Amino acid sequence: MDYRHLGRSGLVISEIVYGNWLTHGSQVENEAARACVRAALDAGITSFDTADVYANTAAETVLGEALKGERRESLEIFTKVYWPTGPKGHNDTGLGRKHVMESIDASLRRLQTDYVDLYQAHRFDVTTPLEETMSAFADIVHSGKAHYIGVSEWTADQIRAGAALARELRIPFVSSQPQYSMLWRVIEEEVVPTSRELGLGQIVWSPIAQGVLTGKYVPGQPLPEGSRATDEKGGANMIKRFMRDEVLERVQRLKPIAEEVDLSMAQLAVAWVLQNDNVSAAIIGASRPEQVTENVKAAGVTLPAEVMARIDEVLGDVVETDPARTREGMPRGRSVAS
User: Has UniProt tagged this entry with the keyword Oxidoreductase (predicted)?
Assistant: First the structure.
């Protein structure tokens, strides 16, 4: 395992982060989840990413149990706040002060820790003044409940506004957590340059494009049993944007490239995102320990420039690059109980 600074901060994290979205408390039984976390630790992963909304808080609980007994100072634990949890009442969502302050305490209880290393705004809240949100984050940092703050799926303009308030409040705003892969490059035009200027690092999710970049989905063939594309609990909905024949056909043409550099398709995909110098880490998930063991082999890999160019040539116009896609996925308002 290799380790990198998170942006320009002093926090060092493993360049492969273990994440439990769509797995712990949902797709994967608790015993298997613990085995995946053990495989991550054995592979040198020290950074773990979760969120209160994953499996409606169950994922945090499972991760807390799985990490129990580990030396806390040797781990970097990240979680997030925004989406509705619990009974989904009118203050159970968003980035208002009440929800943020109550959510951090609940997350800490579930994770069985006194603090998280990184507390992230899971989306931008268009219904709450940014000053209110950042003030709440500042109180959390100053109270010792979080060491650093970050955001997920914010636009470049939103990141810049948040960073300005963070400087005024003297809190370390250090990261962005966007979707990023060979197929989904919407951060490259605006978010990455802005983050580089401000000293933020990217902790990217879905580097394997929900499993599409493993090559297991073949045009015209039945979907593999038990795959994310067959998961009715949320996985199938998330992966559908990539499940077009034109995309799947291009992905199949990446196989010879992976073989030439002695990597699996998944390893190639993870190694590809790590070539971006603004990417501090890539998040991987797993339903089986062996998936962790295999995917961490992407750590420390340097892909030659000609390989990167060939990947671009193969994928061509199926790659999504429009930065407006980040804003399209942003909630227009908070969902509240009727």
Answer: yes
Helix (DSSP H) and strand (DSSP E) numbers for the chain: 13, 10
Q: How distant is the alpha carbon of residue 190 from its chain centre?
A: 18
pLDDT in tens, 75-102: 999 999 999 998 888 999 999 999 999 9
Of 293, 125, 120, which Cα lies nearest the Cα of 203?
A: 120
pLDDT tens digits, 203-234? 999 999 989 999 998 988 777 776 665 566 65
Most confident of 22-26, 83-87, 328-332: 83-87
List residues bridging with 284 in a β-sheet.
18
Q: Which of 255, 237, 238 has its CA nearest to residue 315?
A: 255
Whether the Cβ atoms of residue 138 and residue 108 lie closer than 8 Å to each other: no
Residue 333 in domain: no
Alpha-carbon span 81 to 161, nearest angstrom? 19
CATH number, position 117:
3.20.20.100
Which residue is listed with tokens 């000293």?
A: 199
- Which residues carry out catalysis? 54
